[in-house]
Design brief:
The protein is of the alpha/beta class and about 450 residues long. The chain folds into two domains: about 160 residues, Alpha-Beta Complex (Aspartate Aminotransferase, domain 1); about 260 residues, Aspartate Aminotransferase, domain 2 (3-Layer(aba) Sandwich), CATH 3.40.640.10. The protein contains 13 helices and 16 strands. The strands form three sheets. It has a seven-stranded mixed beta sheet, with helices on both faces. Strands 11, 12, 13, 15 and 16 form a five-stranded antiparallel beta sheet that branches. A hairpin with a 2-residue loop joins strand 11 and strand 12. Helix 4 packs across helix 9. It comes from Dissostichus mawsoni (Antarctic cod).
Length: about 450
């Protein structure tokens, strides 16, 4: 089949014929065909512009000229197997090390967040000499078999829970076991992990694996002190703490480069995984760990190599992303615009009873809709309607998450502006007003 420009209907017919049907599109009833993008904007085949509140992968903005220039220049010079000696990989590792606590100083480069999480699981198993893992309820860590096994979001729909996987309650202070009125929810939720450790192994030796801010779980902000206490319990039992930063790293939270740093200066995981945003759309991911854990992995006597992980082009792109984050103050932008977005959404809450909760930090924000504020019943259908109408009426792309798909999530490119936030909230206000009128009628 020759390269060419198909009409949208033709592309859909070919996709249904050639691409596995489990690979679903956004807006599957009426997909948007995107042919171009710049910054925080997407353009369809007719030139219609959409505001993108979805693409956290294109971290510094779609098709950023500095990224495409770095990729093109390095590709024109050399791209080869990562087992050849090259400067880019060590320069990039050194730059990443400068953003992390000192003890996280050994890096393994891979090509996707799933690949990074799979390797982190291997590192943890090798170091602890046990395969037991504690994960959070509703967690999602990737699509490989090893990761589906530790992702309740997936395994509950498939083969079920393996005996070596242990599920701790999601530390959700809106609808979880311990809510916003609890005097110390961080400690209370951490104690559920402690109970699980004692139940699993008297001698411990397990891994605790969690996103620094659970995303699929519903844009959850972990209560203060939670990770510090969990790490204390896990390490006292001979285990390791793995922080999955695939969705939240690289300054998205604004105040810090890594979301795990929200838990306080004294907290440091044993293994950190990163992916999606680090290549701005180019397949690039990484695992960072300690000398001790890396040493245990080396000591198994089996060589680890990754043909493409850390290749010269990927590392050139990764370095360019770091440069743009710094030069354009994208952490600062995430702080300012994210706070404004959250404040605007909070101001809608008194006017719309359907808004149950507004939560978030930086450009990681969730708007949870409920049919009843007392019972906190998920308003799944209304959330889907808001997503549909924003796309059809306002050319704004958002999506939902959470166990009941009742949380409208905002993880836009980091160049998202004050005007973008104001437009998005204005449109949500209009739609929720219409919905309210329909209910009254």
């Amino acid at each position: 089949m020759a390269l060419g420009k198909f009409r949208k209907e033709e592309t859909l017919v070919l996709r249904k014929k050639l691409i596995g049907q489990s690979c679903r599109l956004f807006y599957s009833e009426d997909p948007v065909k995107i042919v171009k993008a710049r910054g925080q904007f997407l353009f369809d085949e007719n030139g219609k512009r959409y505001l993108d509140c979805i693409s956290n992968v294109q971290h510094v903005g779609h098709c950023h000229p500095s990224i495409t220039k770095a990729a093109s220049a390095q590709m024109d010079l050399l791209n080869t197997n990562a087992r050849f000696l090259h400067d880019n990989i060590v320069i990039y590792a050194d730059r990443l090390a400068a953003t992390l606590p000192e003890k996280l100083c050994v890096f393994y480069f891979v090509n996707s967040g799933s690949e990074a999480n799979d390797l982190a699981l291997r590192l943890a198993h090798q170091y602890t000499q046990h395969e037991d893992v504690i994960v959070l309820d509703h967690a999602y860590h990737g699509h490989l078999m090893s990761l589906i096994d530790i992702s309740p979001y997936k395994f509950r729909k498939l083969a079920g829970q393996k005996e070596w996987v242990h599920v701790a309650p999601l530390p959700d202070t809106y609808r979880g076991l311990y809510r916003e009125d609890h005097p110390n929810p961080g400690q209370a939720y951490a104690d559920t992990v402690k109970d699980l450790i004692e139940e699993v192994h008297r001698d411990g030796h397990l891994a605790f694996f969690a996103e620094s801010l659970p995303s699929v779980g519903g844009q959850i902000i972990l209560p203060q002190g939670y990770s510090t206490k969990v790490a204390e319990y896990v390490r006292s039992a001979g285990g390791v703490f793995v922080a999955d930063e695939v969705q939240t790293g690289f300054g998205r939270v604004g105040s810090h480069f890594w979301a795990f740093q929200l838990q306080g200066q004294g907290f440091c995981p044993d293994i950190v995984t990163m992916g999606k945003p680090m290549g701005n759309g180019h397949p690039l991911a990484c695992v960072a760990t300690t000398v001790e854990i890396a040493g245990a992995f080396t000591a198994n006597g089996v060589e680890y190599f990754n043909t493409f992980g850390g290749n010269p082009v990927s590392c050139a792109i990764g370095l360019a992303v770091l440069d743009v984050i710094e030069e354009e103050d994208l952490k600062g932008n995430a702080t300012r615009v994210g706070a404004h977005l959250k404040d605007l959404l909070l101001k809608l809450q008194p006017r719309h009873q359907i808004i149950g909760d507004v939560r978030g930090v930086g450009l990681f924000v969730g708007l949870e809709l409920v049919t009843d504020r007392e019972q906190r019943t998920p308003a799944t259908e209304t959330a889907a309607l808001v997503v549909k109408r924003l796309k059809e009426e306002d050319n704004i792309c958002v999506s939902t998450d959470g166990p009941w798909e009742s949380v409208i999530k905002f993880k836009p490119p980091m160049c998202f502006s004050m005007d973008d936030a104001e437009l998005t909230v204005k449109c949500i206000d209009r739609i929720l007003t219409d919905v309210q009128c329909l209910f009254k009628a």
